[in-house]
Amino acid sequence: MQSDAANNQDANEFDAFQIARALWSQLWVIIGVTAIAVVLGMMYAFFSERVYEARAYLVPPTQSDIADLNVGRTKEFDLEPYTIEHVYRLFLRNLLSESLRQEFFESTYLPSLSEEEKKRSQDALYAEFLKKMKVSPVTADEIGRYSVIAQTANAEKSVDWVKKYIKHAELQAVNELTKNVSYEAKIRGQNMDWEINAKRDTGDAMREDTLVKLRAALSIAEAAGVQRPVMIFDGSPNAAATNMTGEMSFLRGVEALKAEIKNIEGRSSNDAFLTGLRELQAKKSFFEKLAVTSSKIDMYRYDGEVEVPQDAIKPKRTLVVLLALVLGLMLGVLAALSLHHLGGKLAKKSPSHQV
């Protein structure tokens, strides 16, 4: 048994020695293949298109950022103030929307491509665009910190794309918000208008009822010969009972009743006599003027500056050259062993070997 183990060890050492000698004999092959691989790797690293990545971080706005948005939104006008969460959630919904991606793809990404690249299928180009333009949450919170990433062949362009993409999302969100505010104001203004008209109609009806009652009282007063108000004392030391309403209105006398009828008939409007009308008119005026100025809305904040990238993320030159070196050595060793094996077979087939 010991003899077999010793023989195996000697055989392994002999095989390793043969391999080392074979590689040494083909050293220039290994060096040549490795050099070619390194040169190709360097050419790829230095001449292939470089890719730069710009990144922006976004966080919710502050209460002061949305203060102008809540001007007039009080319980007095039955309007709930907008919260930071509501505004930021609306912005994120637009930032993550498929409509924004498609709009940016058509307006910005496609025009940046060469005519040859534009000939590729739209699906392939769109899939490539989605890899270069990414929006993702940074924190676990649904309305927390988000990142917007753009990858382009130019460092300044990548920053421009990030800011432009965010701006497009903001414009969409602001348009949606202003439409909501305008629609809400329009509906509430219409409700106020209906209430005002209803109150005026009711006032007109009450005016006619009052005239009917006064004319009836005037007829009774004329028949009874009551020209002036009749004072009826109830025996109390402090006041006189002048119950001159309803059926006793004729006690006010012909002169007073005629004067009141003439005054009511001569009114151009009942607005001054309608309780709560002015409050309704004030609310209607507020809703008609209610508007949102987009320049005063901040729906998000940048967390830090969007800096121009100094180094490309692709290709990583050092890594590419190292990988080329390793791959070149592996291919050189393989080529050296193959040549050595092939040379051995040819030597066995030569006439001198057969003799």
Protein traits:
355 residues, alpha+beta, Helix Hairpins, 4 strands, 61% helix
Q: How would you briefly describe this protein structure?
A:
With about 350 residues, the protein is an alpha+beta fold. It has helices at about 1-25, 25-45, 85-95, 100-110, 115-120, 120-130, 155-225, 255-265, 275-290, 315-350, 350-355, and strands at about 50-60, 135, 145-150, 300.
Element-by-element helix/strand order: HHEHHHHEEHHHEHH
Instruction: Write down the Rg.
Output: 46 Å
Q: Beta-sheet strand percentage?
A: 5-15%
Which CATH architecture of the domain at 197-289 is right? Orthogonal Bundle
**Average residue pLDDT:** 79
Number of strands: 4
CATH class of the domain at 197-289: Mainly Alpha
Structural class call reads alpha+beta
Helix content range: 55-70%
Strand order of the largest sheet: 2-3-1-4
Distance N terminus to C terminus?
39 Å
Query: Quick one: overall form?
Result: rod-shaped
Main sheet properties: 4 strands, antiparallel
Query: Can you tell me the residue ranges where pLDDT is under 50 for at least 5 consecutive residues?
Result: 1-8, 237-242
Looking at the structure, the CATH topology of the domain at 197-289 is Helix Hairpins
**Helix count from the secondary structure assignment:** 11
